[in-house]
């Protein structure tokens, strides 16, 4: 008989994945920088270059992670142009109460509730822990879903909070932001160095190889690692959310509606936030980006939820 995973199993699993990420990301990054620079310079010089690149990058990541730990949720909510609502707001009191009721059913503290002024249908959760979490919902998802479907979406986000996915998401988003910024600086240095004497040409070639290592890390390695983790987390949040509401069919119906209009325009330029949303918030995805998707195919998510409803 197949063992059913509890919320605590998902929390333990995500804690292990966080540790593995902390270990894998720097090791793969160091290996890439060394291998790429080794193409143009001897091994000892490649090693020196790797050390001189890795140390400031890791320091910058550590500083940025500390900043994100303190302000990451605020930065994400600001990127989504979300504004907080309260129980005293007559217009939004019903939504506030819906989040509160689902939180009680999930056995979690009530998160802060935010509204995104966009007519599309999407939602996400953020925060360092369940005690300081936030749930953001678009105007569109509030208007276009019925009460049970909206409860299913809120329960999905509460599941992410309970499973500690939100902490892992903040780590990934902020860590990638630093390496993308560093890659841009290195490319500019390589372009200004690559047109002088031989020694500087050599330095320019090294910088170009370092930039290529950053690009491979940012656009190939990181998405693959995120994909491997995120897809399982979405399935887990769907299952846990359905368990909270005891209505998997409602969440399946919500997902079917959401995928018809999930684009949130203000997030078009914040690609790293795609993983935290209940559905991909960008425009139509090309074949390559579909392979790197952080969400499993919605058809499979719906199929699993409907099988739960029948079981």
What's a concise summary of this model?
By secondary structure, this protein is mainly α. It has helices at 7-38, 43-79, 93-106, 139-144, 147-162, 165-193, 198-245, 248-258, 287-291, 298-310, and strands spanning 82-85, 112-116, 123-126, 134-138.
Strand-pairing-aware structural class: mainly alpha
SSE string, helix = H, strand = E?
HHEHEEEHHHHHHH
- Oligomerization category of the chains in this entry: single chain
The overall average pLDDT, rounded, is: 84
Q: Tell me the radius of gyration.
A: 22 Å
Indicate the proportion of strand residues: 5-15%
Present the secondary structure layout.
Elements: H1 7-38, H2 43-79, E1 82-85, H3 93-106, E2 112-116, E3 123-126, E4 134-138, H4 139-144, H5 147-162, H6 165-193, H7 198-245, H8 248-258, H9 287-291, H10 298-310
Parallel strand pairs: 2-4
Antiparallel strand pairs: 1-2, 3-4
What do you see in this structure?
By secondary structure, the protein is mainly α. It has one domain (7-310). The protein has ten helices and four strands, in the order H-H-E-H-E-E-E-H-H-H-H-H-H-H. It has a four-stranded mixed sheet, sandwiched between helices. A hairpin with a 7-residue loop joins strand 3 (123-126) and strand 4. The radius of gyration is 22 Å and the shape is elongated.
